[in-house]
């Protein structure tokens, strides 16, 4: 049995539509390409778009096979068997016994379905005879299997025609069904075996019903020497016509000026947490935004207390060095912020602020938006209160001591215990501490300073939201994700309000992964209720927000092989077919920007669902399709996309012994 790596325990759609599923299957059936005597039979109707893509890729003849499901009396959606074109009836004995279906009921349903089968065969084929199958390799294709009753009838009908070999190929099916067919046919190809398996349609982003007319058109569209997609304007040419050159990922300043306008929030993404060019381009754009457009803050996908030392350094409060300023980033993955690009940017920001301070102009700070710092944030709150209100510090210590009894400074361990009743919940304590701190903030500001008070409040909010996040981790995945991005959006708003307290609206640059700065409503995750920072900022601030996503086709990346693993320099595989990265690569350009906030052919093209790659701190190339790709509408997800075709790995400040600055060969990815 042939099976691609499987995404387990997920109900997310895997394929954009039946066409894409067919192209995936074609890759698994590549060994039949250009073989004489191969016939691809698509089970009508849903299997036909899948089968056409398979036949086109293999340069094989395409035909259809009409098999009708026998639905249970009173429950027609539940298959108890199927009827084949030769009148052969196959029944599921277990289902028949379980539902107490009589032989007469089976015959009655079979007569009705046989009549519909004959009608469809005539509609699709007319007077044209079926493709000969005797002695040939027959590849039976459907859009998926559930019980397998329909496909089983198809196999039995084809077997009667004495083919040389029978292959069954489907995009999705339960593992048990795939293994059952593996014992019945010469080769069984299951592209995915989702678990739990709910329904065939759950594996598709677009599962629009296939009509009779579409089946007729597919049967009359040549597959031999046909391109794997519909003909028409070359999509890469459409993108190329709208592309704006962006050497090393940095568009011309006049283009940026027009694009950003008066927006107060510019969210700049990355499709990996370990790509040098994403970091350097983002830093270059940010330097321009700060020096030329008056932006006064960088808010990063980093923990609030970890950026504390950086902010003090760039503002001239601490006189250490850029490298020492990054020492707060101790948690995995350290390379995400402790790298040469961030070090150089921090050094530049210090020099910029030194000049601003001399001329009496506003300085720019560096802040964190994330919430993984639960225990470090507790320490910051207590340390602050010891300076301004010792009695309040003692109250905070008593409340936060709740975590000492349950987690031993391990947020996930605390969350597990609290979620499943194996430990004490500290929810009430962290809320009381936050309320206490907020109530006494005016007095604390008089005893200390406004910046320190704001820092303590944000740390208290981080503790409160982190506690909820860690409890949610062991429940609904979407809920925990949403808690995190809502925290980032709330922190961003609080930061903007704090920086703009003198009446001048603050302008903030956000550094975060594409998965956060992109609009989740334009992704398959959004269909499950997942939110994102970019979506929330758009909803709250409208045209005051601009989002820029980054993509790449191939190269190298700094990533680990597992959580808490050592950083490695890994080769990034060439972008998959049907992905936005492949489309942008096909322009032949090294680096360019595409604006998707304006009308045009390129925007409409990028509004179609496509695969998009996301590499976080872990990269698993052997399961890349399922580990790192998802479906999205790029034009609705970002206001602009910067594509850098070939990228290299981000260099950590302290490269581990397994990290080497390897580069891809000049012939990569062709290998020629």
TrEMBL record:
InterPro entries according to UniProt: Emycin_Estase, Hydrolase/PRTase-associated, PRTase-like, PRTase_dom
Entries under SUPFAM superfamilies matching the protein: EreA/ChaN-like (SSF159501), PRTase-like (SSF53271)
Domain Phosphoribosyltransferase: 22-190
Any GO BP annotation: response to antibiotic
Keywords: Glycosyltransferase, Transferase
A family per Pfam: Erythro_esteras
GO terms for MF: glycosyltransferase activity
UniProt protein name: Orotate phosphoribosyltransferase
Species the sequence originates in: Nocardia africana
